[in-house]
Task: inverse folding
């Protein structure tokens, strides 16, 4: 509203600048020659002054006077001839009218094409002062950045910002933020792991030497944390050391508490690594993704891994360990019916000792194939 | 909302410029005083609107309004306030807005000071000025809108090119544009005269203050740009014959010629057609400079954005104005009354000599600048016409011109006495010879060219002082009378002498630094020393530092005299601007008198230590001090009381006309 008011006022003023001189009555002005005469009179004074000061000799002064006088004569003639009265009293009314109208028409027309009157200005100070709860993530980040630019030694700030950067894929910023956090807040398993992840992401997903060192540091700082192990294993797999990776994870699994929620997943992953040729299996990308994912996302990845296992067992049914893993995986995922179906398929596919083994395994987990009992 | 007001004011200025282009010119044809009178208030209103628009853009930069695309692309919230403001014209859109702002400013000045102009001439001048304004406003609105908005607004800008984050950006472009655009007034006067088909000595008098103003600012703009490039780019050079530099140098050369030929026209009513042509050419060269810089034909720091659409638009403007004005000239030139004849040995003869050499020099620079571009366009071959070409062609042209400078002001109008003038310049000549001999003796005659160059500089300087002394009558009359006469001299005499003296100063600096300057590229480890120009330079190592929007590594150097006392500390730095991920170097410069030590840091060495470039630049600041003296000369001439000519008394009736409209 305020804008339109100003626009109208500006247009009014601009139109007035054209309109006023056109409507005002004017007396006849001096002829053009008169203006020339003023200049020549001035030149004449100049020559007199120079002559008086002795800057030019009398002969030159005389010549100059004569020359200027000739010019004055000519200008006086012109002034006499040229009438300054309007040549045509009948003014080009259409020209004047269209000129006056063109000011509002052209300006508003062009503004309609180029302007965005509905967009409010967004000065940064105003945006920073608004309620943080209303802000978007990027706005909150900008706030935090502004704060940290002023207080670069606020370790907590860096601590908060670092994982946010990482999640947004701003890996370089994340590396910088984690380093600052470590510098100011001291080392912790969380920071070491985050820095490792940031370094790996910055390197396009490759576990670099630096990243691997950070994961190892994180593992040392928190021996019970499974995530750094995953990443270390991934680093090893990158070098083709699948066996070593599986052994390392197995050793970790053996020492892990029995009620750890990730036991089964880890077991599945170890099996995957062992089964896979160095090039396939849960690839580096998959593990990297699993380590970074939120719980639901991770479940989804596990699901797809389980589906893969299911598919393989269809092709190659004579695999006791495979069936065990499949049944247990379905149970872990809460898909009891699928687990039962898998058990059924396993018991059909296997025979003798292996079939009994599978049944005993299922019974331990609380599953029984009642209908298949002879 | 502020950005939208800016946008609206801009399109309103365009609409009003269109009226300013049409009505006054039509009025002048019809001798309709009312239509002619529209020129003055519209010129003021256009200036006010563009100023408002510009202020809105500055405001958007200052408050970091990232809903404006131009601010996002060229600013950063952490940038110091000064660079937020200068960043307004550190980019294509903003600099074009500054261009039209200054154009409209000159239009308003003509309207304000134009009471002594015949109404028809004034209406035509402002009308032609309106054409230029309309063309460039249309260019901005159509292809380079500085007020384009973005939604959603980003939270941080991309920052200004770090090389441009310097005080130089606050001074160089505005000064340069004041010069470039100032010549638009001369252009408008010339086209107006051609339209009217009437031109005389009075015309030259009316144009003179505008030529002087534009020339003064252009001199300052070029000098400032040169000094900025010198300390910012870290190459130790002060002039590179870079096409962009040439683009500003050509209008300067042509403008200098115009300044001198207009004198002949004013005093002798001669050289009229030539002067009008020069006025057209000078602004045409300014436009050509704008085209070269803005179209992206040249790629350098000055080309903020390369966009073929913009280039074509500017090329169209260029063709329209240069082609149009020259065509008009071709049709009208014969009908202009030609001036009287004159003797070759006279003041006017000397000024023709000056024009001959200046325009030839302009042509030389033009060829050197455009030839590689044309060749590349036609054959695809990339060649570089560098300093050797210009030194071989431009240099020799300047020698006779400079040698003739002291003669000009001493020769009388109409018929000069070369021998007499020569006698009066004997002292200056003897002094120049003495200095030349001294330099030859000191350098064991190894630097013959330098000795003569310095001799020439002394000759120019002593010559301009001789002019003042002779005009004051020193030696002929008593000291008291001489002093009284000296004080009473017209200011334009002082202006001429000072500008010519400045020319000599600049020449002295150029010759000295080219011949006696030294350059050393060495690897230094902390604690090591290097002998430079009688001092020893000790490297003290790198220390990190943090600026407002950059981090830097400062290389610290101590300058020790013969007794190993520290006389100065020099800090040269390598900066890194994280927003643009761009490194820059900051040269370390200390000034001793008019000489400078100049240090630039290179790369780190694997073996430890760092590559350091060290220059010793004797008398280097004289190059720019000379330009300042030239500017001061122009300024003093401009203040000459005699340039103020009254308007004729009105024929009759109530006081009206331009004076009232401008109130």
Result:
């Amino acid at each position: 509203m305020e804008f339109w008011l100003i626009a109208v006022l500006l247009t009014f003023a601009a139109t007035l600048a054209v309109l006023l001189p056109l409507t005002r009555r004017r007396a006849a002005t001096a002829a053009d020659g008169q203006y020339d005469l003023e200049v020549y009179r001035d030149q004449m004074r100049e020559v007199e002054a120079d002559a008086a000061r002795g800057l030019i000799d009398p002969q030159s002064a005389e010549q100059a006077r004569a020359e200027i006088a000739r010019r004055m004569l000519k200008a006086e003639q012109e002034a006499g001839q040229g009438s300054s009265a309007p040549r045509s009293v009948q003014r080009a009314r259409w020209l004047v009218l269209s000129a006056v109208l063109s000011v509002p028409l052209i300006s508003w027309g062009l503004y309609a094409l180029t302007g965005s009157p509905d967009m409010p200005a967004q000065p940064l100070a105003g945006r920073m002062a608004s309620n943080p709860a209303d802000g978007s993530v990027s706005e909150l980040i900008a706030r935090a950045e502004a704060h940290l630019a002023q207080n670069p030694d606020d370790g907590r700030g860096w601590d908060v910002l670092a994982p946010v950067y990482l999640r947004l894929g701003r890996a370089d910023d994340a590396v910088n933020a984690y380093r600052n956090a470590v510098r100011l807040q001291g080392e912790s398993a969380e920071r070491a792991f985050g820095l490792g992840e940031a370094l790996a992401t910055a390197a396009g997903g490759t576990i670099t030497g630096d990243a691997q060192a950070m994961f190892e540091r994180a593992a040392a700082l928190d021996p019970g944390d499974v995530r750094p192990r995953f990443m270390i294993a991934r680093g090893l797999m990158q070098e083709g050391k699948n066996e070593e990776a599986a052994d390392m994870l197995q050793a970790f699994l053996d020492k892990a508490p029995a009620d750890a929620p990730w036991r089964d997943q880890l077991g599945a992953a170890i099996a995957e690594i062992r089964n896979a040729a160095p090039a396939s299996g849960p690839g580096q990308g998959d593990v990297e993704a699993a380590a970074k994912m939120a719980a639901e996302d991770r479940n989804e990845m596990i699901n797809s891994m389980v589906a893969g296992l299911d598919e393989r067992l269809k092709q190659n049914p004579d695999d006791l360990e495979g069936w065990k893993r499949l049944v247990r995986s379905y149970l872990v995922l809460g898909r009891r019916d699928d687990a039962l179906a898998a058990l059924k398929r396993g018991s059909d596919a296997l025979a003798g000792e292996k079939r009994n083994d599978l049944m005993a395994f299922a019974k331990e987990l609380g599953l029984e194939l009642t209908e298949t009992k002879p | 909302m502020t950005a939208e007001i800016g946008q609206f004011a801009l399109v309103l200025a365009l609409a009003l410029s269109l009226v300013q282009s049409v009505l006054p010119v039509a009025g002048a044809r019809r001798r309709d005083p009312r239509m002619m009178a529209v020129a003055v208030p519209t010129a003021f209103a256009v200036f006010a609107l563009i100023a408002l628009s510009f202020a809105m853009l500055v405001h958007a930069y200052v408050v970091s309004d990232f809903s404006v695309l131009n601010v996002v692309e060229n600013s950063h919230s952490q940038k110091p306030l000064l660079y937020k403001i200068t960043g307004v014209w550190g980019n294509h859109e903003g600099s074009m807005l500054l261009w039209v702002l200054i154009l409209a400013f000159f239009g308003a000045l003509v309207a304000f000071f134009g009471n002594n102009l015949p109404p028809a001439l004034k209406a035509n001048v402002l009308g032609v000025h309106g054409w230029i304004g309309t063309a460039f406003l249309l260019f901005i609105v159509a292809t380079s809108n500085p007020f384009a908005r973005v939604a959603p607004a980003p939270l941080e800008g991309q920052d200004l090119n770090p090389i441009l984050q310097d005080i130089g950006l606050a001074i160089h472009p505005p000064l340069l544009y004041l010069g470039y655009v100032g010549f638009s007034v001369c252009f408008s006067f010339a086209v107006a005269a051609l339209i009217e088909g009437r031109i005389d000595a009075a015309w030259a008098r009316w144009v003179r203050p505008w030529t002087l103003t534009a020339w003064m600012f252009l001199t300052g703009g070029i000098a400032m740009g040169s000094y900025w490039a010198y300390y910012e780019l870290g190459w130790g050079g002060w002039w590179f014959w870079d096409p962009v530099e040439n683009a500003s140098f050509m209008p300067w050369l042509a403008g200098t010629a115009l300044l001198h030929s207009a004198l002949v026209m004013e005093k002798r009513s001669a050289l009229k057609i030539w002067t009008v042509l020069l006025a057209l050419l000078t602004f045409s060269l300014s436009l050509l400079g704008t085209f070269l810089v803005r179209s992206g034909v040249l790629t350098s720091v000055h080309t903020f954005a390369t966009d073929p659409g913009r280039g074509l638009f500017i090329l169209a403007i260029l063709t329209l104005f240069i082609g149009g004005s020259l065509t008009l000239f071709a049709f009208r030139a014969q009908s202009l009354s030609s001036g009287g004849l004159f003797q070759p040995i006279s003041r006017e003869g000397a000024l023709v000599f000056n024009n001959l050499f200046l325009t030839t020099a302009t042509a030389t620079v033009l060829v050197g600048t455009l030839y590689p571009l044309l060749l590349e366009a036609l054959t695809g071959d990339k060649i570089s016409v560098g300093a050797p070409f210009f030194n071989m062609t431009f240099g020799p042209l300047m020698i006779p011109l400079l040698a003739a400078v002291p003669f000009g002001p001493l020769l009388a109008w109409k018929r000069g006495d070369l021998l007499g003038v020569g006698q009066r310049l004997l002292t200056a000549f003897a002094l120049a010879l003495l200095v030349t001999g001294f330099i030859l003796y000191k350098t064991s005659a190894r630097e013959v060219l330098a000795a003569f160059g310095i001799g020439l500089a002394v000759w120019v300087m002593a010559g301009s002082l001789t002019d003042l002394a002779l005009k004051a009558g020193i030696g002929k009359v008593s000291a008291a009378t001489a002093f009284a006469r000296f004080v009473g001299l017209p200011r334009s005499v002082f202006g001429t002498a000072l500008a010519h003296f400045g020319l000599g100063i600049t020449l002295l600096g150029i010759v000295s630094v080219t011949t006696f300057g030294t350059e050393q590229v060495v690897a230094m480890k902390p604690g090591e020393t290097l002998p430079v120009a009688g001092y020893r330079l000790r490297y003290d190592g790198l220390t990190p530092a943090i600026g407002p929007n950059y981090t830097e590594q400062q290389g610290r150097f101590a300058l020790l005299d013969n007794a190993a006392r520290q006389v100065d500390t020099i800090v040269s730095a390598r900066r890194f601007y994280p927003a643009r991920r761009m490194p820059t170097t900051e040269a370390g410069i200390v000034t001793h008198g008019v000489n400078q030590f100049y240090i630039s840091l290179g790369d780190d060495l694997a073996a430890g230590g760092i590559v350091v470039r060290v220059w010793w630049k004797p008398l280097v600041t004289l190059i720019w001090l000379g330009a300042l003296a030239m500017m001061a000369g122009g300024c003093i001439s401009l203040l000459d009381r005699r340039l103020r000519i009254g308007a004729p008394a009105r024929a009759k009736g109530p006081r009206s006309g331009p004076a009232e409209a401008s109130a």
User: Anything to note?
Assistant: The CA atoms of residues 7 and 147 of chain B lie 6 Å apart. Residues 203-404 of chain B form one domain. Strands of chain B lie at 518-524, 529-532, 535-546, 551-560, 566-577, 582-586, 588-592, 595-604, 610-617.
